[in-house]
Amino acid sequence: MFRKIGGKLESANARAAEARKAWRDEKLSAREAKANERERENFAREEEVRSQFVEIKRLESRRGRRKFFFILTFCLGAFMGFISGFAMGLASPNSSPSPSEVDVSTMPIAGDNEIEEVSDLSAEFTSEDGDAAPITLSQCVDRGVEYFKEIGSYPTLSSHPDAGRPAKDVALERCGRTLTAFGPW
After folding, report:
1. CB 89 within 8 A of CB 70
2. Crossing angle between the packed helical segments 137-150 and 167-177, to the nearest 10 degrees
3. What is the dihedral of CA 23, 24, 29, 33, to 10 degrees?
4. 144 near 170, Cβ under 8 Å?
5. Burial of 125 (0-12, 13-18, 19+ CB in 10 A)
6. CB 174: neighbour CB atoms within 10 A?
7. Angstrom distance (rounded) from CA 154 to CA 171
8. What is the enclosing helix (H) or strand (E) of 134?
């Protein structure tokens, strides 16, 4: 009787072991199937990324060619302008810019409260009487400061685009562009 029960117990244990093994194999095959599916998805993503990378490289090379040809065109245009300006200079070698054509925006500016007197910086403008009067940068700035005092914006401007800036600095900047910035002379 113990043998019978022992034999049945052994066979039951063997069947249980086989069932566990089959269950494990089934779980492993399901896991392998999921892993294979993920691998295929990753491969598809990699292919998509590669194709996008190739497209980006193609666009970047086109962009580089466009930059190169833009710079080349710009340089050729500048060179042609230089040559034509040089040829114009050869045609009239004695011409020089009039005092009103002098660029004063590159002239040095002194400290906060004083303006350096520049002896070369003068322009002649005809008044209503017909006589010529030399105008200096400091005279222009003084006229600008007087204008800002008249309109009530001295010492700091209150209107756009120069709101918050010192009136003297704005007058100096404007006179640097043109000596007639603050009225007829």
Report:
1. no
2. 130
3. 100
4. yes
5. middle
6. 18
7. 11
8. strand 132-136
For the stretch 1-46, pLDDT in tens is 667 777 777 888 888 888 888 888 887 787 888 888 899 999 999 9
SS3 156: strand
**CA 120/CA 9 separation, integer angstroms:** 121
What's the predicted TM-score (pTM) here?
0.31
Per-residue tokens: 20: 């566990």
Instruction: Give the length of the chain.
Output: 185
Q: What angle do CA 131, 135, 136 make, to 5 degrees?
A: 160
pLDDT in tens, 112-168: 444 444 434 444 444 444 455 667 888 889 999 998 898 888 888 888 788 889 999
- Cα gap 180→185, rounded to integer Å: 7
Give mean pLDDT, residues 35-58: 91
| Residue 142 neighbours by CB under 8 Å, 6+ apart | none
CA angle, 109 then 115 then 120, to 5°: 75
What does DSSP assign to residue 125? E
Strand, helix or coil at 132? Answer: strand
- Cα separation, 159 vs 102, whole angstroms: 30
Assign 3-class secondary structure to 126-153: ECCCCCEEEEEHHHHHHHHHHHHHHCCC
Are 104 and 176 spatial neighbours (Cβ–Cβ below 8 Å)?
A: yes
